[in-house]
Amino acid sequence: MANANMDRLRRLGVLIPVSSLRRERDLGIGDTRALHEMVDWAVSHKVGFLQLLPINEAGSDHSPYNAISSIALDPLLISLEDIPQISVSDIEAVAAKQNLQSDPDHLVDYEEVSSAKWGLLAQGFDDFWAEDEADTVFDAFCVEEAEWLVPYCKFRWLMELAGTEEWELWPEEYNTPEAAELYLASMPVEEVERNLTFYAWAQWHAFSQWRKLREYAHQHDVKLMGDIPIGISYSSADVFFEPQWFDLTLSGGSPPETVFKDDAFACQWGQNWGIPIYRWDVLEKNNFSWWRRRIEKLTDIFHIFRIDHILGFYRIYSFPWRPRRNEEFIGLSEKQAGDITGGALPGFFPCSDDTEENRAANLADGDKYLRIIQDAAGDGEVVGEDLGCVPDYVRPNMESLGIAGFKVCHWEVRGHGETLSGADYPECAFATYATHDHDSIPAMWNSLKGMLGGLDHEGAIRGLELLSDFAGLPKGSSADCYADYGPVVKWALFDRLLKSNADYASVMITDIIDSTERINIPGTVGGKNWRYRLPWKISDMPKSLQHDCSRLKELIHLSGRG
User: Fold this and answer.
1) Is 19 helix (H, G, I), strand (E, B) or coil?
2) Among 39, 219, 300, 393, which residue has the fewest nearby CB atoms (within 10 Å)?
3) pTM for the full model?
4) What is the C-alpha separation between 350 and 379, in angstroms, rounded?
């Protein structure tokens, strides 16, 4: 149960991926110990919550939204110093040998990090396995979590043997759940037990560290905010060992958007994320046990969680082909595409909002499924990312359920073209200028300024006008009306955000430190995506930025947050 002093407080949050944090001996990626230091920073600056990205174990693309398990946590985020069998000297030796700390681009090098951390985990497990006495706490964890842990460990080891999480590419000996069970049963018992126990041991340490961190944050009146994607990766332990919950003939995504000007497929057909569609009728017959388990484990760690693409609970855009076939359909007409698929075309599942009957059905579905999520969450607070093509029934329904929807301040526009004042936001709202998929505030402002006088001059003026209108800054139809980004613009934007009526307000860490770096660019894979790191440890923040943090603390006080 939440403490009374943590209930219904207006809070400011800071979005920062755990992987972006730095500390001594972090081996090139942020971890639970670095986040512990970030909690201390939040306490000293009256920041009410830390908004994180998903922390489930990711696949080879390292996207936190493409996890190989709906529950298993990412071992790369474990603090190795907190594992008894791993010594500080061993960590320092690996760091020195692989030169992990010298990253001039300030990016996570996942290949180096994975080699270092999994190598040390394996070394530590060797010592654990050799110990004479059983660890009763670990044994209890394995028993309590067996429902998801056992299939995850099997999948994780088979994935290691095959060299990929894409189970369709695994050898025939184990590329189906039935074959996998026979394959494992044919192997030496001790070898199987040892390897499966290794992955369970890593998960035990991950859950132990995160649960302790949650309690520490709770004791200091800081909330940890997690993030849960609407879907789960096709190449996951869940889909492989529990296929009954998923329709594998359809891939979830989003409708066409012209904003992706450089992506011909997205402009024509939409974004094909490749996530399987849920068989909601089958899930319901089993009392939605898969979803309940997923949410209950999430609230083991987080006080608040954000549902990414909450619109998918009402209806979700789907494709009758896997993403690897996307290029095959670029430039084709619907008839030509239908000739290839047997008539099936991308569209909303289970139905579009083209009739009142369909709208009512989609609303009823979303309401039912979100009530299940809330029931499983208990005291956990639920926030919904409701951006994109939003049916007009979604936000009233979310508000009636007490699920805070997003208010991207410069996107909330009245009928006459001016931004909605933050004073008019409902309390049940999450106010911000951006998500991890967007530019930071300084990057956004600088980008619009840079477009002035160019081909999209009018669009740039409109963007600056909306931001300025919300922040109470001067605005007009010429470039001279808009100042360069600096303290005046920054604090006007921060002031209006924090003083909005929304219970939740959030800025990215990049907004605070005036960084123009991106966390993710939607529709792209690789490059700098998901690799952003702070240029220094939070304790080594430059004095000029420390001054800004002190000013932020004062603004938090003046705006009644925290």
Assistant:
1) helix
2) 219
3) 0.95
4) 31
